[in-house]
């Protein structure tokens, strides 16, 4: 259920510029419904009231990671008919030693951009704090402006088959019914990559490549980030070469997976509704730009325009 609160309008003599307003950190979070109507009272003539829609609204958000649930997902390889030991897909034992300390950074299930209650709006070429406005800001997801979801594995057993056909030719059959391919390694969804201070254009999906040398050795996983794969000209869902070896993706991808968190913001996936007393229906505003001047702080400023389409 949404919560409504009134924010007292600033007097003209006490208003600071929008940059100062955005820099405030009072800890107040509005759960999904922001009422910026001015309060009646004495000295009302000093209050600046807006009765029309703004050109641009900028809202400050906090980056909030959602850890993945490390359920019992096991990985097992079958090399030329011989089964290896079952290993926890999300454990450290299945990773090379040099990767084990970083594994938890790649196991997030989502990243939220949560509205902090602070922002500004542009009207007639002038930036003003939200507290000057008479419009209402509503969010569909409570106080979350947008959620970037990641793909994690949830099947109890991931069985990977590797079968020698002829000399230097292997049929690699990935888990959950995907067709096998000759001398092509599968890229399996692993989770979302996030670290404190990471710019939101680097928050992305990660993938695991299973490596099986022979039937007598345990398989291990190489974790690859989507942003790195794109730089190496292998974006999902296409097939291609990594270090002259064929690789292919096996998961089903939606738009929110293919784009980074920054990409989702820039393509209008963050949405808010703006309403006025004189309007019968609220107006949809969609994101088109963001500013993250200090990633270490965890704050991002999202800008919204009206009239954009999905």
Please tell me about this protein's structure:
The chain has 310 residues and is mostly beta strands. It contains four helices and 20 strands. The protein has helices at 18-23, 226-231, 255-258, 261-266; strands spanning 33-35, 56-67, 74-79, 82-83, 87-88, 108-123, 126-129, 136-138, 144-149, 157-166, 169-173, 181-182, 184-193, 204-211, 220-225, 240-242, 245-249, 271-275, 283-291, 299-306. Strands 1, 2, 6, 7, 8, 9, 18, 19 and 20 form a nine-stranded antiparallel sheet that branches. Strands 3, 4, 5, 10, 11 and 12 form a six-stranded mixed sheet that branches. β11 (169-173) and β12 (181-182) form a beta hairpin.
Uncertain segments of ≥5 residues (pLDDT<50)?
Answer: 1-50
Mean pLDDT, all residues: 81
Q: Helical segment tally?
A: 4
Gross morphology is: elongated
| Assembly type | single chain
How many domains?
2
The string of secondary-structure elements, in order, is HEEEEEEEEEEEEEEEHEEHHEEE
Overall structural class, as computed from helix and strand content, comes to mainly beta
**How many beta strands in the DSSP annotation?**
20
Percent strand? 35-45%
Radius of gyration, taken over Cα atoms and rounded to an integer in Å = 25 Å
Helix content: under 10%
How would the blueprint of this fold be written?
Blueprint: H1 18-23, E1 33-35, E2 56-67, E3 74-79, E4 82-83, E5 87-88, E6 108-123, E7 126-129, E8 136-138, E9 144-149, E10 157-166, E11 169-173, E12 181-182, E13 184-193, E14 204-211, E15 220-225, H2 226-231, E16 240-242, E17 245-249, H3 255-258, H4 261-266, E18 271-275, E19 283-291, E20 299-306
Parallel strand pairs: 3-10, 13-17
Antiparallel strand pairs: 1-8, 2-6, 2-20, 3-4, 3-5, 6-7, 6-9, 8-18, 10-11, 11-12, 13-14, 14-15, 16-17, 18-19, 19-20
């Amino acid at each position: 259920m949404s919560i409504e609160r009134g924010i007292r309008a600033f007097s003209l003599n006490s208003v600071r510029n929008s940059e100062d307003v955005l820099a405030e950190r009072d800890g107040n979070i509005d759960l999904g419904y922001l009422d910026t109507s001015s309060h009646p009272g004495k000295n009302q003539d000093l209050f600046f009231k807006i009765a029309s829609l703004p050109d641009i609204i900028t809202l400050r958000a906090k980056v909030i990671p959602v850890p993945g649930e490390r359920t019992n997902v096991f990985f097992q390889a079958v090399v030329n008919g011989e089964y290896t030991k079952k290993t926890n897909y999300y454990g450290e034992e299945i990773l090379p030693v040099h990767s084990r300390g970083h594994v938890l950074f790649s196991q997030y299930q989502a990243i939220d951009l949560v509205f902090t209650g602070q922002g500004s709006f542009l009207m007639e070429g002038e930036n003003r704090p939200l507290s000057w406005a008479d419009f209402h800001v509503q969010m569909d997801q409570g106080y979350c402006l947008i959620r970037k979801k990641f793909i994690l594995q949830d099947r109890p057993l991931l069985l990977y088959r590797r079968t020698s056909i002829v000399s230097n030719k292997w049929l690699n059959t990935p888990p959950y019914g995907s067709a096998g391919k000759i001398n092509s390694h599968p890229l399996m969804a692993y989770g979302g990559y996030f670290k404190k201070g990471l710019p939101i254009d680097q928050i992305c999906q990660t993938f695991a490549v299973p490596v099986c040398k022979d039937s007598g050795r345990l398989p291990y996983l190489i974790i690859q980030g989507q942003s790195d794969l794109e730089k190496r000209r292998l974006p999902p869902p296409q097939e291609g070469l990594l270090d002259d070896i064929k690789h292919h993706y096996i998961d089903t991808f939606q738009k929110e997976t293919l784009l980074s968190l920054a990409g989702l913001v820039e393509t209008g996936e963050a949405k808010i509704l703006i309403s006025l007393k004189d309007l019968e229906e609220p107006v949809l505003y969609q994101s088109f730009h963001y500013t993250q001047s200090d990633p270490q702080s965890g704050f991002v400023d999202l800008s919204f325009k009206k009239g954009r389409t999905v």
